[in-house]
Amino acid sequence: MKQTPLPVSDRVVDTSTQRGGWSAAGRHNRYLRAAVDFFYAETAFRAFTFLWLYWAMAKFELLLERPRVLYTPMNAIAESIAPVLPAKPAFWAVLCVAAVANLAKIFCRQTVWLQGLLVGCLLWANLVLWGYGFLSHINHVFLLAHLFLVWVAVEKPSNNSPSREQFQTINWFYLGLLFTYTLAGLWKVGALGRKLLMSSGDVHWLKPEAALYNALVSFRDYDQPFPYAQLFLGYPWVWQIGFVVVVYLQVASVFAAWRPALRPWVGFFLVCFHLLNQFAFLIFFKVTCLVLLCLFFPYSWLLPAYRRRKLSPAHAAFQGKFLAATYKRLYANGEEDSFSGFEAYRQLWVDTYGYAAGIFYLPGINTAVSFFMRVFRGGSAG
Description:
With 382 residues, the chain is mostly helical. Helix content is 58%, strand content 4%. The protein folds into 2 domains: 28-194 and 236-301, no CATH class; 312-377, no CATH class.
């Protein structure tokens, strides 16, 4: 596809003092990519929502086979909006309203009240489905995503005008989702620290037998055979290292909210985390995995909507080495993106390899590599 050039100008714009080295053209491309990715992510998510509504109907049919007396709302909200198990026509009516609102939002993305109505229907249905003495959190990412969509509206790429405000709104959307994983990671750190400081005799994840014990409990609860004992007994260090890696990725995941190139990697890591839990510990988060796939897939990598409207640099140049390295993109109107140090390498890799280079935006990599460059090369161009 032909890419849109910038208007030609004789004036060279000095961007050396701009935050992050971004010119107006560079910022436009960032905003455009984020908007394109989010538009298709939301569209895929709404398609999945129809599947979720079908699943909710099927599960409710199973619940009707239980004695109604077993229905027990789990909190004050459930007691106020769903105090008793609703009749089948009422439940189906609410899901139909949700389906209509979800469909309408595909075509009327600026209509806030439709999303609010959809959120209310989904919350009510979820409370009904989990009103039997146990309120699962397997749908928390699904429900939170719909809640945060109340404040985000991105039209299809041909009608959308990317802006800084829209870009920030998208980032806040992902911040809300990923913060739940960061909290989970911080909880693990706190729980582990407490046990270590108190010299507790309780099993924690750094003990060799921790993974085995957790797996045994889960398989016993589900009354399933346990054929993987050797994986836990023979390689306990894998699970110990894996715990540290998982905690790091969970705590660090919130940083991807403001680093779009990192988001697909974080989404991939979180899906792998849930699949590993499902395989090893029978902890099922199927809905969450599908939601993550919908919302974190790099659609602009495959679809032409981004390439059609991207402002392509007329020239790009990389010079120097290590901390003295520089990378510049020069656009047709004289505007220039300019980066130095390790950020120069990252921007070059992103331009060359696309989202594959996003992994270098994990927290700590810039600090570690820059420290290595400073210590072993003294920042010289070499």
